[in-house]
Amino acid sequence: MQIILASAKIMREASRKTGLPYSEPRFADIAKAIAGELSRKTVEQLSELFGCSPEIGELNRSRYAIFGSDEAEIIPAIFAYFGQAYKHLRADDLSNDDLLWANSHLMISSCLYGILRPLDGINLYRMEGGFPLHASGKLKVEDFWKPLLTDLLINSVRADDGILIYLDTEEFRRLFDWKRVQAEIPTIVEPKFQVRKAGRLTTPSVWAKTCRGAMARYIILNRIRNIGDLRDFEYEGFRYSPDKDCEWLYIREM
């Protein structure tokens, strides 16, 4: 079983020390080339590209200025991200054995690094995929990544047991040729997390991210191999409740 989870815009410097060796990201050279190009842009340009405030643009200009240097802190990916999903993945209290298992079964999608393993050492950054760069062959970054990451995702899943648990976001799906993924991976499970209030189902983004992180943690802690075991997943009131339109639906009653 392979799991894929989206990277997060929120990152942090402090992380737990495990004593485990870092691995190098598979596409470290590409990430360095993209970072080098972004380091030459102004705060205003970065803010426009990332759709962020000048303060966040300045923070990331300073990150890219030292990217890959001895001055930059290198952090395992699973500890570096700190968005909503990662707050509920709670990597800080996973054991070293958990982390090693996750390193073989969890993939993290990234517009800068492509696909990461949890123990890949990375720089702090912010990145989007919807604009072209010289480093991406003048293609939109997400289009540049598509053939590389599609091959890697398919090959990784097929080299395991042919099962993919897709806990990534819709935004990051653009990094893949999804028709190929669906055609070439035997089993894809895409859990949906919805809230039912007054008889109406909605999909609040914060709860979807929360449950994706929690489900990744559940799989890691329990070393899940059989997708049927995912029916036992419960978190913050969400329980397995399939319907005719979605086999892997989890609902919280309000």
Structural summary, described in words:
The protein has 254 residues and is an alpha/beta fold. It has one domain (2-253). The protein contains nine helices and eleven strands. The chain has helices spanning 28-38, 43-50, 54-65, 77-80, 84-89, 96-105, 141-159, 178-184, 205-222, and strands spanning 2-6, 75-76, 106-110, 114-116, 121-122, 163-167, 187-189, 192-197, 200-202, 239-240, 249-253. The strands form three sheets. The protein has a five-stranded mixed sheet with strand order 4-3-1-6-7, with helices on both faces. A hairpin with an 8-residue loop joins strand 10 (239-240) and strand 11 (249-253). The longest helix is centred in the middle third of the chain and has 19 residues, at 141-159. The protein is globular and about 50 Å long.
